[in-house]
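User: Could you write out the 3D structure of this protein bound to PMV? I've included everything you need below.
Assistant: Certainly. Input first, then the structure.
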Amino acid sequence: VKKSEVVRLILKERWRAAPYHLQANAYAPINIALCKYWGKRDQELNLPLTSSFSISLNNHGATTELKINGKENDEIFVNDILISEDSVFSKRLIDFLDLFRHDHFPRFTMIIKTNIPIAAGLASSACGFAAMTLALDKLFNWQLPKDKLSILARLGSGSACRSIWDGFVEWQVGVSADGMDSYGIAIPNKWPDLCVGLLIMSLQEKNLSSREAMQRTVMTSPLYQAWPNKVTHDLFILKQAICDNDFNSLGKTAESNATTMHATMLSAWPPVSYAIPETLHAMHTVWKLRDQGLAIYFTQDAGPNIKLLFQKNDIQNVREHFAAVDIVEPFLEI
Ligand code: PMV
């Protein structure tokens, strides 16, 4: 199934509608997976091999402004810098926009503003595609329900389907070939004491995309066969932990899920590792602090940066050990 077919299925008669506004903007948060999406069953549609579970970081994300520009080409500005049309980043965005124009559709100017580093394993593509989908919905006045917006965002980047919501989100794996049952669903539970600490170790763009790393892992890692069972188990425990407000169970499950994902990468061939010395140093610090009685855990995605998980009453303690930490309270009202 092609992406364009999914777009037609979702937009139906809205597909050929002219833009309703000349300009629209939207915001979407980054999301951090507590149970990771790692492996696709369909490369074209970004359909996953397993479900996954995340938390959105309310005030950390991307704002996308879309304008009808009347020019020959699309223009993309990221944090006030005009991005070359040949860059991998703009190609991905332009391919995505191509899904929504036909002969009479004009070109766009996209003004993307993020308060997080791009492509450093901080889910910038997730919030970027989610914000773009929400902006398109406004520009064309589609008024789509969120499950459909989540499917469209997934076509841009898998994990973007979870950035359509705040708070806890489950991306259901689905079974259908067109992916109409594979989208994010908001989990209503809140956890006001939960904190996420972002430890930025490197602002360098990663040299291996998550798309490539995922595929290589699925194809070559002897450990990958254990991954689907691990996800089923972790999802169950995470949801239970959220219902019981059991922070240690949540933290342990999230950390173990991340280290298992990275173990599948390390055992791929050629091996994949996103860690740099600072990443390992931070992990050891977390383990040492935990031995000393601090309830702190970490998770890591397709980049060197570490995300800490802890609770509000330990903020001071965490700051003492990680001077550069950027602390987010995902359930703080903004
Ligand atoms: O959506 P992508 O292609 O950027 O993949 C994201 C993969 C991880 O961040 C490593 C895990 C996840 O579930 O977010």
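The radius of gyration is 20 Å.
User: Perfect, thank you.
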